Amino acid sequence: MSNVHSQNGNVLLLGASSAIARRLAARLASRGCNPILAGQDLEDLSRSAADLRLRFGVQASAREFDATDFADHREFFYRSTKVFAGGLSGVAFCVGWMADAEAETDFDATRRMIDVNYASAVSLLNLAGEYFQERRAGWICALSSVAGDRGRQSNFLYGSTKAALTTYLQGLRNRLSPYNVTVTTVKPGCVDTAMTYGLKKLPLLASPEQVAADIDRAILRRRSVVYTPRIWRPIMAAIRLVPEPIFQRMKL
Q: 138-175 burial by CB neighbour count: b if 16+ within 10 A, else e?
C-alpha cells in the first residue's frame, strides 16, 4: 500500500502572511483543501483568501490572530474549528521571528523569539493535538529550522528556540501516533523571505515555493521530519558529528 494518502479537508494555517505559508496555502487549495488564513494583517489575508476562492474554487477564510496572545488561544482555536462544516483536518504552524544580532544583549528580543517561535507553538499545537486525538484523525505540521540542529557561534539564541520546538514536536508526534495523527517537523535551511532579507553569505538559499512544495509532499506522505531543500539532511548529519573542540573553532 502506498504511503501517500489524501489530505483534503479544512486546514488552519497559523502565520499565514509569511511567504512560505502563502505558497503552501495555494498548494493546499489546488488539491481541494479549504484554507483558514490566520495572522495579524486581516485586510491582507482577506485579499489572499478571495484570491484562493477565485483561482481554485475552494472555500477560504481569513482570521485575525496574534501568536503571543496566549489568553485567547483556546477560544481562537475553538472558533477556527467551526469556520467550515466538518471541522479541521490539519493545522500548519508557520509562525516565526528572528531578532537581529542584538538579541544576545537584549533579553526582550530573546524573550520575544521564545514566545513567538516556541511558547506559542506549544500553546496552540497542544490544543490541536487534543482536538485531533479526540477525532482520531488529522495532521499537524510546523516549521522548525536547521538552525536548531546544533548550537553555533552565531545566531544560537534563535537556534535554541528551534531546537526546543523540534524536541516538542518529536514528543507530540510520539504521543499522538496511536491516534492516527501525523506530526511533521519541517527543517528549512536558508529561505528567501523577509526574515532573511539583507543577510549576507546565505548558503543554498531556497525559494518559498520550493519549501512549500516539500512541505505539501511531506504532509501527503505523512513524513515525520523533512529537511528542505533535501541537501540539508546530509549536511546537518555531518555537522552534528563534528567533535565539540573542533566545532568551537569553526566559524559557523
A: bbbbbbbbbbbbbeeeebebbbbbbbbbbebbeebbee
Full residue range of the structural domain in which residue 59 is found: 10-247
From CA 245, how far away is CA 3, in angstroms rounded? 42
> Which residues are paired to 181 by β-bridges?
138
Give 114-154 pLDDT, tens digit per residue.
Answer: 999 999 999 999 999 999 999 999 999 999 999 999 988 87
What is the helix (H) or strand (E) element at residue 29, kind and residue range? helix 19-30
Count of residues making up the chain: 252
Residue with cell 537581529: 100
Give the separation between CA 21 and CA 91, rounded to whole angstroms.
12
CATH number of the domain enclosing 226: 3.40.50.720
Residue 15 CA to residue 208 CA, distance in Å, equals 14
Give the separation between CA 233 and CA 235, rounded to whole angstroms. 5
Q: Is the pLDDT of residue 252 over 80?
A: no
Question: What is the number of structural domains in the chain?
Answer: 1
**Radius of gyration, CA atoms only, the chain:** 18
